[in-house]
Write a structure and sequence with these properties.
Blueprint: E1 15-19, E2 26-29, E3 32-35, H1 39-43, H2 45-53, E4 57-61, H3 78-88, E5 92-95, H4 101-108, E6 115-118, H5 132-139, E7 144-147, E8 169-171, H6 173-187, E9 193-197, H7 202-212, E10 218-221, H8 226-234, H9 248-261, E11 264-266, E12 271-274, E13 277-278, E14 283-284, E15 287-289, E16 301-305, H10 307-318, E17 322-326, H11 339-350, E18 355-358, H12 362-369, E19 378-379, H13 384-390, H14 396-399
Parallel strand pairs: 1-4, 1-7, 4-6, 5-6, 7-8, 9-10, 9-17, 10-11, 17-18, 18-19
Antiparallel strand pairs: 2-3, 12-15, 12-16, 13-14
Helix pairs in contact: 7-9, 10-11
Length: 404
């Protein structure tokens, strides 16, 4: 996707408003809010270090949580300023407001290479409404706008899209990398191109399935949505597994499209089933694997793919030259139901001849929990943004950036 990036401009001495995704998990530890996972901060460091080296004046803005336009001290970005300062080994100033005289004065006082973090943009009621007055207030802080928050690029908000109407707007290095792998590489993938899709509901993923049926050589289906396909194709009973009759026509249309286009469509042939399932408590009762083609009995439900399915999918993954994975194979959050998902993660990592792309969301957690995150080509930082880009949708935060 040919969008200008910070490499295409001269930011030296210029105030750059950089939209980042610092929506990190915070935990109250004895009255102090502590960051429990700094991955999203770390992902922005290449962009920040590049701008610092170029002598830009960096003004960072981000949302955190869902304060719904209200000031909430528990969703303040102040702890992030300290964490970022440690990561950059530089002082990071913090503005208790994200617009107005105080923020503007702090922005103008920045030296070349200086860094300022603004308070949570979602403390403004107008942020999620893409209010133009607020967008202009953000723009008043800077001379250049840089969007490095791919995970928020599918939102038409003041800090992700609106502000770009009032300043020269380019992508950061993380955004540039996301668009390269999640869009450009998949427009003309090296073949065979194998897509692995998991998740709960067929209805949630059908637009992605349809879009990728235009490009893939093989589609592999796992997760809760696989049971609808299994009922249609294998005629098995599903017990209490995730299924609704209204999903059948959606699944049937996808199977027909795959047939018409000559796309191999693989679904599980066996499952790990349990007679008791409590997601909130992360507990299951008795478990056992079904045999290939075996019905799932009444009162039992599928919670993971079985070993025969893993073998089937692993063989297909091994022959691929491009692999895209979005969505787990089962309820991997429960350790006893995680084996299928982790086996697929290891199968993807084992194919070092392929370009392997992990498309955001739970798949990212899965490759990290499986210990193979450093053995794949690219891991997306966007959940919803990744899905919408894969569906072929235009992301407002990307559309707002200048074309090359």
């Amino acid at each position: 996707m040919a969008k200008q990036s910070i490499r295409d401009i001269n930011p030296a001495g210029k105030r750059c408003l950089v939209r980042v995704d610092f929506n990190v998990p915070l935990e109250d530890q004895n009255g102090t809010m502590v960051i429990t996972d700094a991955t999203r901060i770390e992902e922005t460091l290449p962009t920040l270090r590049y701008l610092i080296a170029q002598g830009a004046k960096i003004i960072l803005c981000s949302h955190l949580g869902r304060p719904q336009g209200q000031i909430d001290p528990h969703q303040s970005l102040r702890p992030v300023a300290a964490a970022l300062s440690t990561l950059l080994n530089l002082p990071v100033a913090f503005s208790p407001t994200s617009t107005g005289p105080e923020a503007e004065a702090m922005a103008r006082a920045l030296p070349d290479g200086g860094v300022l973090l603004l308070e949570n943009v979602r403390f403004h009621p107008g942020e999620e409404k893409n209010d133009d007055t607020l967008s202009r207030q953000f723009a008043a802080l800077a001379e250049i706008y840089v969007n490095d928050a791919f995970g928020s690029a599918h939102r038409a908000h003041s800090s992700t899209a609106g502000v770009a109407a009032h300043l020269p707007a380019v992508s950061g290095l993380l955004m540039e990398k996301e668009l390269t792998y999640m869009h450009d590489e998949l427009q003309n993938p090296q073949r065979p191109f194998v897509v692995i899709l998991g998740g709960a509901k067929v209805s949630d993923k059908i637009n992605v399935i349809n879009a990728l049926l235009e490009k893939a050589d093989t589609i592999i289906i796992g997760g809760g949505m696989a049971y609808t396909f299994r009922k249609l194709v294998q005629g098995i009973t599903l017990g209490s597994s995730l299924y609704k009759p209204e999903w059948e026509p959606i699944a049937a249309a996808a199977l027909e499209k795959a047939h018409q286009r000559g796309v191999k469509f693989l679904i599980p042939v066996d499952a790990l089933i349990t007679d008791s399932f409590d997601f909130a408590a992360k507990q299951v009762g008795q478990t056992r694997y079904t045999q290939p083609g075996e019905n799932i009995p009444d009162g039992w439900e599928g919670v993971d793919i079985g070993p025969a399915s893993v073998d089937l999918f692993r063989a297909e993954i091994a022959s691929a030259r491009t692999v895209l994975w979005n969505g787990p194979m089962g309820v991997f959050e429960i350790p006893s139901c995680a084996k299928g998902t982790f086996d697929i993660a290891h199968a993807i990592a084992a194919n070092q001849a392929a370009k392997t792309i992990i498309g955001g969301g739970d798949s990212v957690k899965a490759v990290k929990k499986a210990g193979v995150a450093d053995q794949v080509t690219f891991i997306s930082t966007g959940g919803g943004a990744s899905l919408e880009l894969l569906e072929g949708k235009v992301l407002p935060g990307v559309a707002a950036l200048a074309d090359k």
